[in-house]
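HUMAN: Can I see a protein plus its fold?

ASSISTANT:
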Amino acid sequence: MNPLDPQALGQRAEAMVTDLGEISAEPGRRVRLFLTPEHRRAADLVANWMRDAGLSVAEDALGTVKGHYGEGRRLLIGSHIDTVIDAGKYDGPLGVVAGVLAAEHFAKAGRKLPFGIDVLAFGDEEGSRFPATLASSSACAGVFDSETLSLADARGVTLTEALKIYGKDAAGIPGAAYKPGEAAAYVEVHIEQGPVLEARNQPLGIVTGIVGQHRVRVTVTGEAGHAGTVPMGLRHDALAGAAEMALALESIAKEHLDDGMVGTVGRIEASPGAVNIIPGRVAFTIDLRSLTDGLRLTALKKFEMEAKRIAGTRGLFFSMETFHEIGTAHCAPALQDGLVAAVSGLGHAPVRLPSGAGHDAQVMTRLCPSAMLFVRCRGGVSHNPAEFASVADMGLAIATLIRFIETFDPSKLA
């Protein structure tokens, strides 16, 4: 078997990520959405890479491309090939490329392992087209929510219709799931999307857990009125009330800094939206994340109580509705230890850190023990064309994954 050459692996990864990054629906910016012609082109490219690496290739009913090598229980390695709007090129594709190159290391040498390897290229992690996330990995994990099929994109096309156009049949989705015991573990390589590794001057990090999330729609209703004639003391200004609620969310999240809790009001819309009219209705979103589900639920309840108090004081009506919730996913200690040993064996100090972003690994933990390896990214920038990971760091990540595979023992997992 060829000796590990992290620099060569990194150079190959950069070339592959760049080729995939050129597939976009729009000139001048990277847009590759689930079940679009661009997704088809990307999936076909990945399938060709897998075949060239010596893997057999299949594709499930939600378009996940699966490259297989070996026999026995499966070590799953994967990530996603869809993007956000105006994306960088590393978020998702690096994990797929790393899996292909790691599996190739064994397949091309004809090395028999005491387990099989499946490399997975999921198509829907970002949720950029339909108002749902992790649909592809949910199907593989056997936890796909059939209600997702009725969700529609911005043009009114439902997921069921999009699958048909893509050449798939929604009736086959249950067949995408791995059978009980078939998957031994899942490992995902991903850029960090944060600044911790760069701040510590380390190329790689081992993820301890992925934060749980709540996404909530809040509506505040007051009374629209003339901006010049309604005295301040007689107003029912929905925007002023919503602003106070946003500050309350910030204050509540700051009470749990040790837990890494974060709260964000990411979208806000005031109506009627005229310069000379007091806003009578405001809708805004909340994104609340924490590594401890109990603290997150308690914080959300506290926000609701505080928002109702603010509404009552200001003569407003308040309502909130959860539209997305996923629990904290803790990475398997044995897999973490295996990655730590692999990083150390390559002469680097392993850093353990949580993930503040959601990933396919989050839902794959419902199928089997899972873990993640983070790769340093410049400035912690992600979901942005400026996203960047170095050839050296990517090569080290793939070499780490190969070393991890060499010592992986499914029988040692609880």
Summary: The longest strand covers residues 212-221.
